Amino acid sequence: MTVSKLPAIHPGEILRELYLDPLDMTPYALAKKLHVPRTRIERIVAGKTGVTSDTALRLAKFFKTAPEFWMNLQNSFDLKVEMQKLKAELEAIEVYEAAA
Predict the structure, then answer these.
(1) In a domain, 4, yes or no
(2) pLDDT in tens, 59-100
(3) What is the per-residue DSSP string for 67-100?
(4) Count of CB atoms within 10 A of residue 74's CB?
(5) Which of 11, 26, 62, 96 has its CA 20 to 30 A from that of 1?
């Protein structure tokens, strides 16, 4: 499998640690600037919900990043979490070997 062995880091942790905390900005203040409900950003920062494409586009616009950055963080997190859940089942799957 090509998923890295680094721990799963929720995009909300990245948002909080690398963006909100250094700017001394609250989730509420960010939500107002993004024109989204306060609870959306609070739940992302708390790791209770993921980043949607809508939110990725808004975060990208505000922070001058690519929306793919936010979506890739979410996809990486989702894959790592799912890989842990399915670990035994995935190990039981044989690798396809093409005939030579």
Answers:
(1) no
(2) 999 999 999 999 999 999 999 999 999 999 999 999 999 987
(3) HHHHHHHHHHHHHHHHHHHTHHHHHTSPPP----
(4) 20
(5) 11
Asked whether 43 and 78 are in contact (CB, 8 A), the reply is no
**Domain hosting residue 47, numbered range:** 11-91
Residue 38 lies in a domain: yes
Question: Which amino acid, one-letter code, is at 8?
Answer: A
Tokens 């929720």 found at = 10
Q: CATH number for the domain including 73? A: 1.10.260.40
pTM exceeding 0.70? yes
Structure tokens at 9: 């880091």
Token pair, residue 81, equals 């979490």
Tokens of 43: 């739940």
Cα(12)–Cα(70) distance, integer angstroms: 10
